[in-house]
Amino acid sequence: MTDFMNYLVLGLTRGSMYALIALGYTLVYGVLQLINFAHSEVFMSGAFGSYLVIGMFVHDGQHLAWWQVSLVMILGLLSGALVGAGVAWALERVAYRPLRQRGAPKLAFLISAIGMSFFLSQLAGKLFNRLSQNQFPSYFDQNKAVLHILGAAVSRIQLIVIVTALLMMFSLDRLVSGTKLGRSIRGVAEDAPTAALMGIDIDKTISRTFIIGGALGGAAGFLFGTTFVFSNIMGFIPGVKAFAAAVLGGIGNIRGAMIGGLLLGVVENIVPTAPWDGSGGWIGLQWTDVVAFVVLILVLVFRPTGILGERLGRAA
Amino acid sequence: MSASIQRRPGERLRDNPLVGRALGCLALSFVLALMIGKQEGTQQDFGLAFREAILGPRIVWFLLIGVLVFLLLTFGPRVQPYVHRPGIRPLAIGGLTVVVAFSLLKWTDSTVVSDGKFSTLSEAASKTGQLAPLARTFFTPPLPWVLFVVAFAVAAAAIVLRKAALSWVGVALSVLVGLWAWYSHSLVVSLLGTPDHSTGALVALLGFLAIAAACAATALSAEESANTRGFVNRIFAWRPGMPLVAVALVLGVMAFAIATWFSPSNQNATLVDTASLFSSTGLAPLAKAYLSWLGYLLFVLSLALAAFAAYRRDPRLAWGAAVLGLVSLVLNLVALYSISALGAKSAFDGANGPWDNLGTGGWLASAAFLLLAGAGYVVATAGRERGTIARTQSDVLAGIGKIPGMSKALILLVVAGALFYPPMATPFWQKVLVSEIGIYVLLAIGLNVVVGWAGLLDLGFIAFYAIGSYTTAYFVGALPIQPPEWMRLSPLLCIPIAIVVCLIAGVSLGYPTLRLRGDYLAIVTLGFGEIIRIVAVNNPGNFTNGPKGAFGIPTPAIHLGPIHIDWGQSSLQYWYLLLVITGLVILAFNRLEQSRLGRAWAAIREDEIAAQATGVNTRNVKLLAFAIGASTSGVAGVFFASQIGYINPDNFVLNNSILVVAYVVFGGMGSLPGAMAGAAVLTWLPEFLKDQVPAEDRQMWIGAVILLMMIFRPAGLVPARRRTAELHGFDDASSAETSAVPAGEGMGGTK
Fold first, then answer.
1. B514 in Cβ contact with B488 (< 8 Å)
2. Confidence class for position A214, pLDDT limits 50, 70, 90
3. CB contact A293 to B (< 8 Å)
4. pLDDT over 60 at A164, yes or no
5. Which of A134, B43, B346, B636 is the most buried (most CB within 10 A)?
6. Which member of A118, A119, A296 has the closest CB to residue B523?
7. Averaged over A140-159, what is the pLDDT?
8. Domain assignment of residue A247, yes or no
9. Structural domain range at position A228
10. B192: nearest Cα among B125, B269, B101
11. pLDDT below 70 — which residues of chain B?
12. How many domains does chain A divide into?
């Protein structure tokens, strides 16, 4: 049981990061019906941006008081979100808007995003020495357990990640359902030409959608970098997983992305380690990714539009 | 949205398009500053390259470039009426070509000159006493650039001012400089004494000739509205054989006059020298005759015949030219074989045997003969009709509007290049041609069926390639689990088995998942690709040998009665094997697009529900596309495994799948030549960039190239004809506002 709970907490931690990234995919898919393949690089740039900012304030090995730690955390989240939003905005301007204005075929968007993804990740590698194991400075004891649930020790950083991610997801949900911006996003998602007739500036709305998704992705980059290590190619695997999570929940559906992300994180940690007796499991951790993709394929075979389905969608 | 430059009252500053353009240009130059330059630091100086890129004085230079671009973009259109003259375009192309030749290309392969580029070579050559003074003068550092700038400026002045006398000066000047460069380079080559494969001098010569042609066009064109394109069209357009004859003329003159025919160690013998080298040996009389007089005669005769036939558009003469060209090609190859085989026996130093030690001359001559024969064929089959202009969409689909025979001429050029370029290339490029370009072209052809024709986004295509490779490894006995003795096969016999296995894999992946719509299918195929790779890594049942992979896969061999062919280590042999495989695949796929099946694919690609309503069995048709693509990939896998000899899971990562999709779309989705061109360009580019930028940065530049291509030419390098007509017709694209976002289902909020 203890093992099970430990893996559950681990899965929730990873899953909440997947969910934050998946929201970026799903938001963009909602307004454009396009997969933003460069979103994983938005995530990566969030980690680098917040590292540069935090590095100015704290040093490795420092011990800060709890309020200082929370200040640094907020600073990291904000800077990560800011950099992520900036990169996502530039991405939309460079790789999406010119193609939209030319009426390019759908796959051209995918390829321009892939080109952008190669470009950004390698540019970051060039500028930051292509190291694969960068670490944030450690300014508090991240792994100290703060909470025990049914025998599982929840460490500080895990708690921070899960709580922040949930908070951000909740505020995004409010933003989309309750504000004027959210309404215009939903309008564009449902029927762009009609939304344009209703006085919504489509270009601006799309741009802002990218910015929101980028901010979430950038913040996730900070959380990921703080919990694990970061590098210029860190975006690839979480990006693929988050994309899978978005599809799992029903792409274009915000709550679907949250559920899909959490579910994927939990499943890929729990299933390979069953029966949780510390022996490595029947399946084994080396099959983690296979389990994740098999679950995805099975769900899609039986529910072709994901768990929650595409909201406001016609039957596919 | 307003595109006007003038600022209207009440408009905010940030809405002014000029401000946006200025900021964009500055941002561009800033990114450029980050992209260019040395890099790589250690853990201690994290972000060193970043700080160096933006803190040093060099950032100012880059920002100045941005300002320059801004000024060009803003004031460029106002100058346009003045520069809109016949000849400006070829002038620009020629100038750019020369700059590329002077700055990027190799001018020698010799290891004496470190990177072989023009600047290093001229630095070294200008100080070498053994070099003839004329060449030494040319290489004195600022002089070549000065000469280029002067020639270019004279040409530009002549074209802009439209002065005939000045134009002829420009022609003379650029031809002289071009020939001088070429001559100096050939002196350097003969001084260095090693076989030369460099392209720099040739490209520079071509660039100068283009500048000269631009000047000549100015001098000859009577009216201001005449343009070079029209001029070229008048000569070539309704004589489709003519361009081929022109290319063959250039190639043939190079081959018979200046190129190397035989190069045992440290000598470069032109045709004349080769003839004297072999004069006292027991060379077969035919080859001897070919070397001394027959070759020249054949070239002149077939050139004259083909040119005359192409000019008169006379089918009977054209057939004669075709036959004569082919006969000459065969004779040429016989002569090449004789001299290379005898060269080894007569113990010329470093001569290795048949088909070795041949310089570029023989192959250039072969290409010229093939093109002349092809010119005859094109003229004979094109008939006497003239080109027409397409006016409606159905015209395009019916093939109206292309010049008859022009596409055949292009295909012939590509075939001639594919057949006779590789023997001239360096061993390095031969290897690249086989193991990068050739294989990925084959993969792109396969994926084009799935993505381009049927419109199914497959992000796990490499999985089938992996399956093909591992199937081969199993049946040749290179894996820990051995097949029974009677089932052991030679690699070539694995091809049908790999096709069957990949068909089964394709169908069993496709059957449950093909009812998913586009993006869902993408993630499922991506997952499938990753699953296959991880299975290969994790080695269940000790079948795949884990991360170590399979090694010792034998090379392909054919032993059929009297025929014994064994593909050893030489890349060149594999190239021709690959050419045969690819040729067969292309022949099979070529008819597919216009067939019933191809039209069914187009229908489901454009609108699946409508296709279903008109009676297309969408599931079976999609499955067929999937299976055909998969089996092509499997064939490529067999070839890869047996050529390289060892495989491991790292060859089949997700990135490669994504790259193949990028190749297909980059080339032009749904167009077979496009997919091939896309794969060829994007696999060639990293190898080319190796000499230009730090090796680790190559992927960054490729990403930038892909991005720019999609921004400025979203339909790809060679857009598909059917697609262009279907999607856009000849009307302007409908307003950007409505085509911006496809209407339809999307993201939902909570209401």
1. no
2. very high
3. yes
4. yes
5. B636
6. A296
7. 84
8. no
9. 17-234
10. B125
11. 1-15, 39-44, 82-84, 195, 221-238, 265-266, 347, 349-351, 383-405, 722-751
12. 1
Torsions phi, psi for B550 (to 5 deg): -100, 140
Give a yes or no: residue A281 inside a domain.
no
- Cα A305 from Cα B523, distance rounded (Å): 12
- In angstroms, rounded to a whole number, what is the distance separating the alpha carbons of residues B406 and B670? 21
Interface predicted TM-score of the whole assembly (ipTM), two decimals: 0.91
The DSSP annotation for A93-104 comes to: IIIIHHHHHTT-
Q: Which chain A residues are within 8 Å of B745, Cβ to Cβ? A: 252, 310, 312-314, 316
* Residue in chain A nearest B456 by alpha carbon: A107
Chain B contact for A303, CB < 8 A? no
Rounded distance, CA B408 to CA B735, Å? 37
At B198, list the tokens. Answer: 């460099």
CA distance B543 to B546: 8
CA distance A55 to A68: 14
Question: Looking at the complex, does the CB of residue A254 fall below 8 Å from at least one CB of chain B?
Answer: yes
Q: Where are the domains of chain B?
A: 14-39+48-81, 87-235, 237-424, 428-557+564-653
B516 touches chain A (CB under 8 A): yes
- Tokens found for residue A156: 């500080």
Q: Please report, for residues B40, B41, B120, B698, B705, the alpha-carbon distance to residue B694 in angstroms, rounded to integers and kept in the order given.
A: 10, 13, 18, 7, 16
pLDDT for res B733: 38
Question: Is A165 domain-assigned?
Answer: yes
B706/A296 CB distance under 8 A? no
- Give the three-class secondary structure for B714: coil
Q: How confident is the model at residue A284 (pLDDT cuts 50, 70, 90)?
A: confident
Length of chain B: 751
CB A41 within 8 A of CB A123: no
* Chain A residues in contact with B706 (beta carbon < 8 A): 111-112, 114-115, 118
A155 falls within a domain:
yes
From chain A residues 58-97, the ones with a CB under 8 A of any chain B CB are 90, 94-95
Return d(Cα B309, Cα B322) in angstroms, integer.
10
Structure tokens at A116: 């952008």
Residue A290 contacts B, CB cutoff 8 Å: yes
Q: How near does any CA of chain B get to the CA of A32, in Å?
A: 6
Element housing B508 (H / E): helix B494-513
Q: Is the peptide bond preceding residue B484 cis, with omega within 30 degrees of 0? A: no
